[in-house]
Amino acid sequence: MSSGRAIVVGSGPNGLAGAVTLARAGLEVTVYERQDHLGGAAATRELTLPGFLHDVGSAVHPMAAHSEFFRAFGLGERVELITPELSYAHALTPSRAVPAWRDLERTAKGLGVDASTWRRLLWPLAVDAERLASVAGGAFLPPPHPVVALRLGLRALEQGSGAWNAGFLTDEAAALLTGVIAHTNRRLPAIGAAAPGLVLAAFAHAGGWPVPRGGSGAIARALADDLVAHGGRIETGVDVTSLDELDHADVVLLDVTPRAFLRLAGERLPGRYRRSLAAFRYGDGVAKVDFALSEPVPWTAPELREAVTIHAGGTRGDIARAEAEVAAGRLPGHPYLLLSQPSLVDDTRAPAGKHVLWAYTHVPAGSDIDRTEAVTAEIERFAPGFRDTVLASASTSAAELESLNPNLVGGDIAAGSTGLRQLLARPAPGPAPWRTPLAGVYLCGGSTAPGPGVHGQSGWHAARLALGELRMPVPDLAPSSPQV
User: Fold this and answer.
1) Is 307 left (phi over 0), alpha (psi -120 to 50) or beta?
2) Bond preceding residue 452 cis, omega within 30 of 0
3) How far apart are CA 202 and CA 129, in angstroms?
4) CA 408 to CA 399: how far, in whole Å?
5) Which of 103, 167, 273, 457 could form a disulfide with 117 if both were Cys (CB 3.0 to 4.6 A apart)?
């Protein structure tokens, strides 16, 4: 018998995580999704040619591998996570690349005179990855593990300030870390970029950076399957435009941005909270290009030929200059690229002998420029002959990303700037940022703590908060649970 009704708006990983948690607790759950497919940015589709499966958004999942929610959910028992020994590599020059192995010591030894700096920065975080995931996976104030939070904070202050080069003697080590820090898409150095970058770099040496067999959509399907198995429903093609449409629910979880919540709630929200949401800032955008290839990318540097994840951007200074250009509203001549070639380890992603390549590059917010040529030219610098391998490509500008998914405001895949203030108060200050002033209404998603990434944490926290206020226990999520 149902213990109440819950509605979840949005079927991204956070929305689905919250839905699964509520359904297992005994609520009657319905998920509304405006698109015709599940998963939000964690979806996999044929974007170029038949048989070539491309990740719509996120492609590589260190956050999912370490997330408290996904550990409780038993993601690794439900989805095959392929974790390469080479977590990522950095393309420094056309012929020179730097590898980051899962083995931290192997990575450090390859960095020569910077080996001790690499160990100092990352070993204390990687060795305590479970607690680090807890710190990075909740509301940041107060931190659940103060010692780990202090370690992260001190390193973020160093790598997020003008002193970020003080410990490095070579381009290799500095660039290897900067390629990860630059995921946050902001002017560098910045504390709000360094903190999540250090977390990702530490995870590279802990559990690694896995890709799901079959693509990121496998994660959304696993969540959806569990939801349906526990009585939940998913309705696609439903665009909720007002909270008035949801008044019949006891619990409402909104996997939306503060901007969207303001539209949905209207004058229901008190003025102070409304002003706080209106002040929430969004970052710059990304342009995405997907390629169907006749063969693997012909990288000059051998390390790049076996790396599933690649950062291309040159030295630390080169990346900082490119990011500064984007922050100033310009398109850099040599843009920073984040690349994934999952078909190296997952043969379901392309026809036999063929490959897929996923590429992001940073652009000013709302840019409608097609960056296919810029991305292709930059890859060609590091892989001469790349053009000849391209069978087809699909380009999505920053403006188009927002039109496909309104949570990506201006093409901002982080669903909100990762400035220091918005890391600590996302979207508003407090120990439970998922709660809103409206009874029974909760926020989740990339704009809400702990922020962007495929981790399910925001939806899980919101659902647990709702269950606590309904005086209902938090359910077991494991696949072997008697409830399954």
Assistant:
1) beta
2) no
3) 7
4) 9
5) 167
3-state SS, residue 109: helix
Residue 337 confidence (pLDDT)? 98
- Output the six-digit token pair for 442: 């909760």
Question: What letter would DSSP give residue 247?
Answer: T
Question: Any idea which residue has 């996976």 for tokens?
Answer: 137
For residue 2, the model assigns a pLDDT of 61
Token couple for 358 = 């996923």
CA distances from 84 to 137, 213, 303, 454, 476 (A): 24, 12, 13, 19, 30
**pTM for the model:** 0.96
From residue 262, give the alpha-carbon distance in Å to each of 15, 239, 258. Answer: 18, 15, 6
Closest CA to 314 of 464, 98, 471, 80: 98
Name the stretches of the chain with pLDDT < 50. 1, 482-484
Q: DSSP of 426-462, one letter per residue?
A: SSSSSS-TTB-SSTTEEEESTTSTT-SSS--HHHHHH
Q: Any idea which residue has 């080169």 for tokens?
A: 318
